[in-house]
UniProtKB/TrEMBL annotation:
Keyword tRNA processing included in the entry's annotation: yes
EC number: 5.4.99.12
Major enzyme class: isomerase
Family annotation (Pfam families): PseudoU_synth_1
GO BP, sorted A to Z: tRNA pseudouridine synthesis
Catalyzed chemical reaction(s): uridine(38/39/40) in tRNA = pseudouridine(38/39/40) in tRNA
Origin superkingdom: Bacteria
UniProt keyword list: Isomerase, tRNA processing
Family: Belongs to the tRNA pseudouridine synthase TruA family.
Positions that bind substrate: 114
Assembly notes: Homodimer.
Protein's name in the database: tRNA pseudouridine synthase A
Length: 266
């Protein structure tokens, strides 16, 4: 009888064509699938990996979650060590848990937390190019924090979703949205926590927020975008390099926001 395991992993997205398996592309899912099947001594990739969601090419993860059904029991710590011994250096399994066969890494998600790091140096730092975005213009943090309040709550984020989204609706709920300056790294750091995010939503929101901070968009610009409901008016999508999937929440992980994303919003 197959046993279900929940795996939390981190990865550097620089050299991946995203999370989801694609023909003739190196992806997080394909690498993990290869290693899990090798550990199980499967002659063909019979074990399927189910992720909490996709990350795009160049996006990083500090706490992505997947599940799979394994053909025989294994101690979770032995599985963690075994997977890490075979995975490439830009991936690392942080935790393995045995879970009920009713658990689903995607459909049981109650929330996700993303971080975006924007380097504020005058010149693009070649040593940060894979791990931050870049914004060389002065920003007013007070304006950005005022604008962040307009993101809180349930909204129609049509102006903040890229073409190609497969979501049934563009309504999402954001519980927390913060911004701070990391003085040591000279970076503007955003953090967003919500019940789910649309295709490129975080990167588009950050693009709007840095324009507000730079004074090229009004402080109430987010409210205007809700009224317009047109992606073209949000303009820029900041680079994938600065985006990190920090944490995936499941029911019981966060008592304040225990509700799953409704099926029609997945």
């Amino acid at each position: 009888m197959n046993l279900r395991y929940k795996v939390t992993l981190a990865y550097d997205g620089t050299n991946f064509a995203g999370f989801q398996r694609q023909p003739n592309q190196r992806t997080v899912e394909s690498e993990l699938t290869r290693v899990v099947n090798k550990m199980a001594k499967m002659p063909t990739p019979a074990i399927v990996i189910y992720g909490s969601g996709r990350t795009d090419a160049g996006v990083h993860a500090l706490g992505q979650v997947v599940h799979f059904d394994f053909p025989f029991p294994m101690k979770t710590e032995n599985m963690r060590k075994g997977l890490n011994s075979m995975l490439p250096v830009d991936m690392e399994v942080l935790k393995v848990s045995a879970v009920s066969d009713q658990f689903h890494a995607r459909y049981d998600v109650s929330g996700k937390r993303y971080v975006y790091r924007m380097d504020l140096g005058e010149f693009r730092n070649p040593f940060k190019r894979h791990y931050t975005g870049h914004w060389k213009f002065p920003v007013d943090l007070k304006k950005i924090r005022t604008a962040l309040n307009d993101l809180i709550g349930e909204h129609d984020f049509t102006s903040f979703v890229a073409s190609g989204s497969s979501a049934r609706t563009n309504y999402r709920t954001i519980y927390e949205a913060t911004a701070k300056i990391d003085e040591i790294q000279n970076e503007l750091v955003f953090e967003f926590y919500g019940n789910g995010f649309l295709y490129n939503q975080v990167r588009i929101m950050v693009g709007v927020l840095v324009e507000i901070g730079a004074g090229t968009r009004p402080v109430d610009g987010i409210q205007e975008l809700y009224r317009i409901n047109d992606r073209r008016y949000a303009r820029r999508t900041v680079p994938a390099s600065g985006l990190y999937l920090k944490h995936v929440y499941y029911e019981g992980d966060d008592p304040a926001h225990p509700t799953k994303l409704p099926k029609h919003q997945r």
